[in-house]
Amino acid sequence: MSPSRTSWRIVLVHTITFKQARQWVPVVLGIGALRGLTDGPWAVVALVAGITAVSLATAVLAWWRTTYADGGTSVVVTRGLLSRSVRTVPLDRVRGVEVEAPPLHRLFGLVRVRVDAAAGAVQGADEELVVDGLPRAEADRLRAHLLARRSAPTPEAPAEPVEQELFRFDDRWLLYAPLVGSYLAVPLAAVGALLRLADELPRRWRPDLGRPDLTDTAVVAGALVAVVVVLVVGSVVGSAVVNWRFRLTRRGGSLVAVRGLVTRRHTELEVDRIRGCTVSEGLGMRWVRAARATALVTGLGDAARRGQLLPLGPRDQAWSVTRLLVEDPGPLRAHPPAARRRRLVRSCAPGVVLVLAGAVLTATAGWWWVPAAGVVLAGLGVPLGLGRYADLGHVAGPRSFSLRSGWLVREQVVLQRRAVVGWQVQQSFFQRRQGVATVVAAVGAGAGGYQALDIGAADVAPFAEAASGPWAGALAR
């Protein structure tokens, strides 16, 4: 297929956003400073005109020298003026396709296509193949071509795959957002940016709020209420912006997720490349029985976002969609008592150390409150250690296995047997003394490795063999 260019309207988008010209903006500002353009409205007009001209010129050159071609076996993207880059990806290496429509792109009727290419040697953003500035119809055609099955069509096969809706995001689930740390970071970042902007404003433009009386209980209570309101409202708004109208459907052999209020994203994943799922629950989420579900897809970049099957919702919904993709291996097995002792020791150790140090300080300086604080801290360590132990578990089923760990964020992963490419056993000096070990399942998806903490040393080889096959029995030697 002959190379094609993207829509010329992407030039306007890149000009407005200074995509290619951002590195040249300091140069233009420096030239303006050398020329003495520091005061007056005409100086501002000249700088704006110069920066816009540079942005327009670089956007035109980037558009003119960027082409893409999708053939029967590969997709090729060529870009660059002085330094040319040609990226070729075989279609059988494509792991997923995301169609993204930021606000400015939507204004001009364009989208951005991201192709996860399972690059292997390349890292970071280079794992993606990006075609920016396609009309919606062309983007849909390219997405369908990249994810098309290579098996020969049969007469019985329908012309268009039937779409099955797995579930739709319920707006009431936005109320879970204040219990999720990542969503709470949104209002905190916004407040920090506003404070920094206010600090940069001239003094005459800053409102005079006076000096609040921090000894007044009403003032302190009002400030705390305001902070709580900002955090709650901000987290809900942040969750709505990202997950608005989230919808997960199955279309033939693909999973399709659509979401976003300001930027609409259309992510499509091949079911055959899914090797497992992760259900994660933060400490606050567990109080209301909420969870997230994420698919583990081989070679998928930014899997924490693109692999989301349920961004936020009830725990039973997360497990329902997980069981649709991976067979449930059964209830988890508890870890040996040595694992419980190790967690109790680690949780209570800071308090015990504080008690011992406090005994010395009480005798020398009369600081009796130090050992008292140590006793309280050690007492709080008991339920903490028991809770951390209760969150451990592992099980191997006929076609899948599951591992669970974590306390602040409890994560349970369910993996297919075929996902495992190797095992690693880790055993410290103290683990050897107590007869436990940590076994890590190496997989080609998600985080790359998932561990079962402090399982019985005698159970390592049987568990690995049951979870992946007889070849793992070599761990017993």
Automatic annotation (TrEMBL):
The keyword Membrane appears for this protein: yes
InterPro entries: UCP026631 (IPR014529), YdbS-like_PH (IPR005182)
Keyword annotations from UniProtKB, A to Z: Membrane, Transmembrane, Transmembrane helix
Transmembrane segments: 42-64, 173-198, 218-242, 344-361
Domain YdbS-like PH: 63-146, 399-452
PANTHER family in the record: UPF0699 TRANSMEMBRANE PROTEIN YDBS (PTHR34473), UPF0699 TRANSMEMBRANE PROTEIN YDBT (PTHR34473:SF2)
The protein's name in its UniProt record: Putative membrane protein
Taxonomic source organism: Klenkia brasiliensis
